[in-house]
# Entry
Amino acid sequence: MNLKIALFGIAREIVGQSALEVSAPEGQSARGLLQDLHARYPELARLSSLAVAVNNEYAAEDAPLREHDEIALIPPVSGG
Amino acid sequence: MIHIDLTDQPIDVAAALQLVEAEGAGAINTFIGTVRNQSTGRSVVRLEYEAYDSMALHQLRKVAEQALEQWPMLQQVAIIHRKGTLYIGDVAVVVAVSTPHRAESFAACQFIIDTLKQVVTIWKKEFYEDGDVWVAAHP
# Structure
């Protein structure tokens, strides 16, 4: 399946674009997606944290991702 | 009862306070976050706030709902966050709450700003005279 991933802040700068399309096995978990992205963009692994959001909620590490989910990478937030 | 906004326009603090006026309120408590002129010893020139808008709005509402669960006596809650380019002294965020009595207004206001900083998908980049840094990005 193809996953479309929105990127923000330093994750957007590391990858060099604001969205990314990756092909992933069916049932790919949030953790699996992060491992794949860490391998492709080692700078992502140096961040204090990197979460996956699905449909505007933080996803559990073992949550399976689906093709039409709105997926985003969430580097350490710093609002306020 | 819950007023949420994420805006690229200057925040009108007086208007935010009006949002939480309530006849049953004996207390209005406000937190105003402003842009400081230095960070970890470096002189700050400006900040840029970037947001994942849909998630930030959703999470801001959830933070307000959690406050209402914890302090059911809350009359009104307003959370307004700025995005875009800000300069020294600009208002970045306003949290305003109204309650019958003051103790809960302090507690709820602090809970909201503390939780906002942990979960809401907004990112701050600090620009100095000699560089820039995404705040909190690295250990």
Notes: The domain at 2-131 of chain B is CATH 3.90.1170.40 (Aldehyde Oxidoreductase; domain 3). Chain B is about 30% helix and 40% strand. Residues 53-70 of chain B form the longest helix (18 residues). Residues 25 and 65 of chain B are 18 Å apart (CA to CA).
